[in-house]
Design brief:
Blueprint: H1 2-15, H2 32-55, H3 58-84, H4 90-109, H5 123-144, H6 150-177, H7 181-200, H8 211-235, H9 242-263, H10 266-275, H11 279-292, H12 294-313, H13 323-348, H14 353-364, H15 366-370, H16 374-389, H17 400-408
Length: 409
């Protein structure tokens, strides 16, 4: 009888339909599906850097940052989804693959996001359609699953609708109108979405399924951005010679400095702080500190990679690097450090003044760096980053008495 019952149970298990979704629990980690999903963003970051480098103008940088912001809001949407539901189970896995495909199309079309370069399909419209496809796929998961109960699902659906509908309308309108309206419509779209999302999520019941997963997820996206800074090193590499070899070594040293700015003590301090909060404060701190404040960190790294790419393209030249490469190189690192400072203050309540001072020093050096040849500019940055990071060489401590107040704001 036991054997028949067992066989019957196995048959029932095999014939049962796969679950739509499996809720995450504390201690879950990043899955291989999410790592595979992120490959589309690796390509997207590279395309953004390429767009800015080819334009070589402030408007080109603005256009690139707008595309980067769109990529970021889509990535954060899926990071929350995968934190609340297992990314490698049931309907969610299908949605992750569909979203990844749409984001990859977005990345492919980035060079034509602001204007057609061929007689084929409309680049801006394809770009917007693929982006909205990725976002609507994410939205569909919440419609067919019950994340945290009916009330929580209603709140998530409300938040997505209130933020995505106006931003999507602006993106479509800009793509139809074309230049010069498209840039300003897209800028409005990427600006109002986080504002509306922040207002509509105030006091909601959003939860962090696994703090360890959420923190690991954002560490990995910072690594992806740092990967773009290493890709930029070889983007303009030609026949090997001494200036090129020295430039490669200096550029790698800059990438290591940016890595230290995030991972040397700061990430661990934020993890301890986030893990010690109650459910509601943890969700708010995660939204502010990770979903919002990690964008300037990633954007700063991408801008720094742009500066590295400009310098490496003329590494043997004795002419000055110029303002564009200098501002990208020093300004990108400054934005990254300022982002880490505000992030640390919001999540862990640590003193941000040393990091802000370091960012100010880096930004003020852009005038000097711009007058140096590319090799000299890389050398100054490679030497300067470790020095400014010494300003907060002591590991920041969590202000336990003020942490609850700081996070609850």
């Amino acid at each position: 009888m036991r054997r028949r019952s067992t066989v019957h149970a196995v048959r029932e298990h095999r014939s049962a339909p796969p679950p739509k979704a499996v809720a995450s629990v504390e201690g879950d980690r990043v899955t291989p599906v999410e790592l595979f999903f992120d490959l589309a963003y690796v390509f997207g970051f590279t395309q953004v850097s390429r767009l800015m480098a080819e334009a070589h103008t402030p408007m080109g940088v603005l256009q690139g940052l707008i595309v980067l912001a769109l990529l970021w809001w889509s990535w954060t949407a899926y990071s929350w989804l995968a934190n609340q539901l297992h990314a490698d189970e049931g309907f969610v896995r299908v949605a992750m693959f569909a979203g990844m495909t749409a984001v990859f199309v977005v990345a492919v079309v980035v060079p034509e996001a602001y204007g057609d370069r061929s007689s084929g399909l409309s680049g801006p419209l394809v770009f917007v359609a693929a982006y909205l496809g990725a976002r609507l796929t994410h939205f569909a998961v919440y419609l067919v699953t019950s994340v945290g109960g009916r009330e929580a699902r209603r709140e998530v659906v409300q938040t997505v609708c209130c933020s995505l509908v106006p931003s999507g309308a602006l993106l479509v309108g800009g793509a139809v109108l074309g230049s010069p309206w498209q840039v300003w419509c897209a800028l409005a779209a990427v600006t109002i979405e986080p504002i509306i999302a922040n207002l509509t999520t105030w006091g909601v019941r959003s939860r962090i399924g696994s703090a360890a997963h959420f923190i690991e997820r954002h560490r990995l996206v910072v690594i992806l951005a740092l990967g773009e800074s290493t890709v930029a090193i070889g983007a303009a590499a030609g026949p090997i010679d001494l200036p090129l070899l020295v430039g490669v070594l200096l550029a790698v040293a800059i990438a290591i400095g940016l890595w230290r700015g995030y991972f040397s003590g700061l990430a661990e301090t934020a993890e301890q702080a986030l893990s010690g909060l109650d459910a509601r404060d943890r969700a708010r701190a995660a939204h502010h500190g990770y979903s919002l404040l990690h964008f300037p960190i990633v954007a700063g790294i991408i801008l720094s990679a742009l500066g590295i790419e400009v310098a490496m393209a003329h590494i043997s030249s004795t002419r000055p690097l110029g303002w564009f490469g200098a501002v990208a190189l020093t300004g990108g690192a400054a934005v990254c450090l300022a982002g880490t400072a505000i992030f640390a203050r919001r999540v862990a309540g640590v003193d941000i003044r040393p990091r802000l001072l370091a960012a100010t020093i880096l930004l003020s050096m852009s005038v000097v760096v711009g007058q140096l040849p590319p090799l000299g500019a890389l050398g100054v940055m490679a030497a300067l980053l470790p020095v400014v990071l010494l300003l907060d060489r002591r590991r920041p401590e969590i202000e336990t008495r003020q942490r609850g107040v700081a996070v609850g704001r």
